[in-house]
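Re: that backbone. C-alpha cells:
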C-alpha cells in the first residue's frame, strides 16, 4: 500500500488542515503556581486528608511542601481526633476526602465531622463518572466535590487558601 499521500500532508497531523484543531482539544494553559506561604516554625496542621492512594498522597504532600503548608494524612476517625487534640484550640480549616477511600466510609464520617467541626470545610474528590456518589456527598455535608482531575488542578490554590493562618489574608 502506498502511503506517499501522508508525505504530501502537513507533517504528522493525520490529515487535519493546517492551522485547525479538533474542537475541545486546544492547548491547555496551566495556571501559575501560587506563591508559597511564609515558613512558620510553630505551625500546626490545619489540613487533614483521608487518602489511601499512595501515588496521590505523594502528589498532595509534594504540593503542600512547595507551598509551606502543613498537611497530615489520617487513616481513621480516631486518628483524626487525636491529631486535632494535639492542635489544642485550633480546629482544622480543611479536611480532604477521597470519596472512594477503602478503610473509612466517607458518607458516614462526613456528617459526624461536620456536626463537631462547624467551620471546617470538607472537600471530596472522586472519578468524573460517579455522579450518584457526588450527589450523595453533597447531601451528607461535603462543601465541595470535584473530579480527581479538577482537584489536582486546583490543589495548590486550595491548600494555599486553607493552609494560611486565620489572621492572615490570602490574596489569590
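Recovered sequence:
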Amino acid at each position: 500500500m502506498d502511503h506517499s499521500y501522508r508525505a504530501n500532508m502537513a507533517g504528522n497531523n493525520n490529515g487535519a488542515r493546517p492551522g485547525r484543531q479538533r474542537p475541545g482539544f486546544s492547548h491547555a494553559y496551566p495556571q501559575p503556581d501560587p506563591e508559597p506561604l511564609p515558613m512558620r516554625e510553630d505551625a500546626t496542621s490545619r489540613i487533614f486528608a483521608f487518602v489511601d492512594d499512595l501515588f496521590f498522597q505523594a502528589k498532595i504532600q509534594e504540593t503542600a511542601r512547595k507551598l509551606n503548608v502543613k498537611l497530615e494524612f489520617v487513616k481513621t476517625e480516631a486518628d483524626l481526633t487525636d491529631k486535632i487534640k494535639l492542635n489544642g484550640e485550633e480546629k482544622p480549616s480543611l479536611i480532604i476526602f477521597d470519596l472512594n477511600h477503602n478503610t473509612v466510609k466517607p458518607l458516614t464520617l462526613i456528617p459526624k465531622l461536620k456536626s463537631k467541626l462547624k467551620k471546617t470545610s470538607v472537600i471530596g474528590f472522586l472519578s468524573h463518572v460517579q455522579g450518584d456518589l457526588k450527589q450523595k456527598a453533597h447531601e451528607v455535608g461535603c462543601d465541595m466535590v470535584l473530579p480527581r482531575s479538577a482537584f489536582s488542578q486546583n490543589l495548590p490554590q486550595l491548600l494555599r487558601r486553607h493552609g494560611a493562618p486565620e489572621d492572615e489574608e490570602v490574596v489569590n
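The mean pLDDT is 80. The first helix runs from residue 4 to 8.
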